[in-house]
Each structure stands twice: as structure tokens, then as C-alpha cells.
């Protein structure tokens, strides 16, 4: 079998980290990344919501977070910094890999997922800017 390409095939390799440890989660969010909870509604209900995270269905997340998708969120750009969290980390790892392949080098996943965060007592955070939405005058 012979493959023919109309243009030279080149690839550039960028040494972008793919994962982060549970201990790095809060610091990464404090540095401006956005947490994305990929667990099902049932899992979030059973194990608790990840405070401050955007909850997305794992089946829709690639289209919503990819800058080249017609269904993308407005904040889905190549400069976006997503911290992906699934139950055990595996779904989030695959999604981070796919997003980085699409040019979103700020996509990372939490090793061990929500289970690792829960094990360490980490449940996310809500900044003053978000709390301000609920303050009464």
C-alpha cells in the first residue's frame, strides 16, 4: 500500500504537560485555569460537586472545548487552560490528549481524577469574583 500526500507531512512537537497531580489542582486554578468536571450528574450527586468547576457531559466536552468546533463555548480558544477531572482520570486524560492535538496546549487532566482530589480533601474553590455574584448589596 502506498500513501500519497499533496503536501509534505510535518509535525511540530511542543513539550506541553498533559497531567497534573491532585496537589497541584488548587494552585493551577488560582493561576487562571478553569476546572471542567466530566463526571455524570449521578456521580456528581453521589460523590459531591466539584466546587467552582464547569460541569460538562464527557461525550460533548470535545466539541464544546475545541476552538475549531462549530459547537464550541465562547471561551474555547487555543489559549484556554482547562483542568479536566473525571471519576478516575482516564476520560479526562483522553480528552486532554485530544484537545492538545487540536492545539489547546493548556488542556491538562488530574491524575487519579475526582477520586484523587476527594482522597486529599480537595473540593475546588470559589473565588471572590464568583462569590460577588451572590452578595447582597
Note down, in words, how this protein is organized.
It is a single chain. The chain is of the alpha/beta class. The protein has one domain: Rhodanese-like domain (Oxidized Rhodanese, domain 1), CATH 3.40.250.10. The chain is 32% helix and 13% strand. It contains six helices and five strands, in the order βαβαβαβαβαα. It has helices at 25-30, 41-47, 58-65, 90-101, 113-119, 128-131, and strands at 19-20, 34-37, 54-55, 81-85, 106-110. It has a five-stranded parallel β-sheet with strand order 1-5-4-2-3. β2 (34-37), α2 (41-47) and β3 form a beta-alpha-beta unit. α3 (58-65) runs parallel beside α4 (90-101). The longest helix is centred in the C-terminal third of the chain and has 12 residues, at 90-101. The N and C termini lie far apart (71 Å). Residues 133-137 have low confidence and may be disordered. InterPro entries: Rhodanese-like_dom (IPR001763), Rhodanese-like_dom_sf (IPR036873). Residues 29-126 form the Rhodanese domain. This is Rhodanese domain-containing protein.
What does this entry show, briefly?
The chain has about 140 residues and is an alpha/beta fold. It has helices at about 25-30, 40-45, 60-65, 90-100, 115-120, 130; strands spanning about 20, 35, 55, 80-85, 105-110. InterPro entries: Rhodanese-like_dom, Rhodanese-like_dom_sf.
Radius of gyration: 17 Å
Kindly give the count of domains.
Answer: 1
Tally of extended strands?
A: 5
Distance between the termini: 71 Å
Task: State the helix count.
Answer: 6
Q: What is the CATH superfamily label?
A: Rhodanese-like domain
The low-confidence parts are: 133-137
**What level of helicity do the residues show?**
25-40%
Major sheet size, sense and barrel closure: 5 strands, parallel
Q: For the residues shown, what is the average pLDDT?
A: 85
Proportion of residues in β-strands = 5-15%
Which strands sit side by side, in order, in the main sheet?
1-5-4-2-3
Specify the CATH class.
Answer: Alpha Beta
Pattern of helices and strands: EHEHEHEHEHH
Net shape:
globular
Protein name: Rhodanese domain-containing protein
InterPro entries: Rhodanese-like_dom, Rhodanese-like_dom_sf
Domain Rhodanese: 29-126
Amino acid at each position: 500500500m502506498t500513501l500519497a500526500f499533496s503536501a509534505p507531512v510535518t509535525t511540530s512537537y511542543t513539550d506541553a504537560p498533559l497531567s497534573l497531580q491532585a496537589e497541584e489542582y488548587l494552585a493551577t486554578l488560582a493561576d487562571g485555569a478553569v476546572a471542567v468536571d466530566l463526571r455524570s450528574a449521578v456521580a456528581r450527586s453521589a460523590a459531591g460537586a466539584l466546587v467552582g468547576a464547569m460541569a460538562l457531559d464527557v461525550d460533548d466536552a470535545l466539541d464544546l472545548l475545541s476552538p475549531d468546533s462549530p459547537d464550541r463555548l465562547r471561551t474555547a480558544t487555543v489559549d484556554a487552560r482547562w483542568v479536566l477531572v473525571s471519576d478516575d482520570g482516564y476520560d479526562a486524560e483522553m480528552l486532554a490528549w485530544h484537545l492538545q492535538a487540536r492545539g489547546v496546549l493548556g488542556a491538562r487532566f488530574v491524575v487519579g481524577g475526582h477520586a484523587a482530589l476527594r482522597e486529599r480533601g480537595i473540593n475546588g474553590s470559589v473565588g471572590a469574583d464568583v462569590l460577588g455574584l451572590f452578595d447582597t448589596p
